What we know:
Layout: H1 25-39, H2 42-45, E1 51-55, E2 58-67, E3 73-74, E4 77-78, H3 79-92, E5 97-108, H4 113-130, E6 133-142, E7 150-159, E8 176-179, H5 185-195, H6 211-220, E9 226-228, H7 234-246, E10 249-253, H8 261-270, E11 284-287, H9 289-300, E12 309-315, E13 322-325, E14 331-333
Parallel strand pairs: 5-6, 10-13
Antiparallel strand pairs: 1-2, 2-7, 3-4, 5-7, 8-11, 8-12, 9-11, 10-12, 13-14
Family: Belongs to the HypE family.
Domain PurM-like C-terminal: 173-318
InterPro entries: HypE, PurM-like_C_dom, PurM-like_C_sf, PurM-like_N, PurM-like_N_sf
Amino acid sequence: MTGWTCPAPLRDRPRVVMGHGGGGALSAELVQHLFAPAFGGDVLARLGDSAAVTLGGVRLAFSTDSYVVRPLFFPGGSIGDLAVNGTVNDLAMSGAQAAYLSCGFVLEEGVEMSVVARVAEAMGAAARAAGVEIATGDTKVVEAGHGDGVYINTAGIGIIPDGVDLRPERVVPGDVVIVSGEIGLHGVAIMSVREGLEFGVDVESDCAALGGLVRSMLAVTPDLHVLRDPTRGGLAASLNEIAAASGTGVVIHERAVPVPAAVANACAILGLDPLYVANEGKLVAFVPREHAEAVLAAMRAHPLGRGATVVGEAVDAHPGLVVARTALGGTRVVDLPIGEQLPRIC
């Protein structure tokens, strides 16, 4: 059985379930045990937010993502904003400034042209704000009842500056973990409008393009170790992916994690953990300790990093495992989610 690979995810599921798209353990197994063996290739095996490749002597970041959020419009954004900002952010996590995007629309028969126009206008505005050009695209139409109005796929490319090498394998014990601001806003905003829930205060998505924030951090030092935008699976999923890839342990301090009151209240009512709720305009950074104070100051000077906070550190103990120090002085394991708490958030 030399070279044998399992052709399907390991959790004995003969069919795809929603959790396979949730950014948790089921998603990881689908990629690692089905797609990666089928496609092969060293670049794909790195499984970053974007692929760092060299072409003609130039280091490029290349990323693609699909957006199936429901509803199409929500407090703080729309599927059009997500499609641009999500791909721009994936490129930014490699240190790249996004240059060009592609855009593929899958439209459901019967969707109003006014809805499609609103989405397209939102995409155009988001692209201009992020300093990126939508350079090519495609449109397909599916029969009524075979979609939720509009699905979007975007791909993007950007140039990685010299001296920048962002990947989890560079994380070492002693690195400081910084989160750029309050977590959980996007997931709660989507849930509130989709399910008609009210939490006593309006919650808006944090959807934003993070390229400018990353550039301000790299201006302090190109020697950042890894960046991730904690979207599906939330902060917990990103920390677990980094811990597993780096072979280090991660300790976070629960009281230091910036959770806004509205998110905390919503999660308490629904039995959710804010660490697993999606974000669309935040990043988590592992920074060498000697640069942490200066990087934190630069983040707080940027509009998208005003709430930046040190939440933990990489450690020698429990390699590959994320633990949280609780307010009561105990510890708990923060594991990779199996599926997803909130479906269809991006």
